[in-house]
Design brief:
The chain is an alpha/beta fold and about 325 residues long. The chain contains 12 helices and 15 strands.
Length: about 325
Amino acid sequence: MHRIPLDPARVTDPRTPIMIIVDDPAPLVHVYRCHVIDVHHRPPLTEDGRPLLEQIPNEVLAHFADVIQRWGIRGKFSIVPGMGGRGDLVHGIEGGGLEEIRAWLDLARERLAPQMDFSPEMITHNLTLDLATGGFLPLSEADWAASQTEETLTPYIVRALEMLREAGIEVTGVTSPWEFGIEVEPAYRRACAAAMRAVYGKDRSWYFLHAKGPEGRPDVVFSEPPTELVSIPCTVDDHLWQTIDSPRTDRAYVLGITDRFLTSDGDAGEIRACLDAGGWPLLNTHWQSLFSNGMETGIAILDEVGRRVQEHLSDAVVWCSASEAMERTIAAAGQ
């Protein structure tokens, strides 16, 4: 299993951490399309009426890897192990797809793992898996979680982690699909920590659930030494989401959305607002936002964001993985 490296120099770097939080990825399956149909009960269309594509080809992962390697972008990358309820990482999807899935996982291990931490985004990011029967409950995972306890949440998270481990993916934390666990968060925190210990033997882990304002930073939210759990929020909105619903790919469109993250002179945008407020720029986006329904406009925008951060903020920020942000947060809490 490819182990995700942790760079101690980034943990102690005096610059402000910056990271990207990528939600909803899975090989082949367009998970967002799945839950538009199964959870939101809407036709799988963009807002401008185009069909949402059923699959996301492996080339998208390769293009994303090109961008993060070009600019040294680090952060967190989810992998939905139950792939929207359409299959799983080990057995494939209806109709096959095993060769493509294995190639996608190889790409993730080889090209993303040096810079990104992996997490499950629970099992399906869609309808809830019934662990006893293998069928699906008529509830989204977030709706199901709202009435659960530590005793019922823990085996569900364990199953998600076991599926990734079986696929050869090293995991350092957990991502909530939607607001999974927010109504029962004390129990959810204990379940995350217990599941990470049970499957990966890790006493230190993190989870992503919350959005905060520009002053936001990660927090240690559960501490029973040696167990430590850190909540990593996002502080910068997913401005790439709008690319799902637009066919535009022109340069003016790309630069206009990039400005919302960081302007061309580096003096404005949400990344700059975080720094001015004393927070960490923690950029949230989604696999469907980067895919842009086949146009990959989101990847082009991320490329320009990376370039501007390097040009204007290299003295002020350091790209960190989720585990590096976690270690820095734990160290600061112990001071």
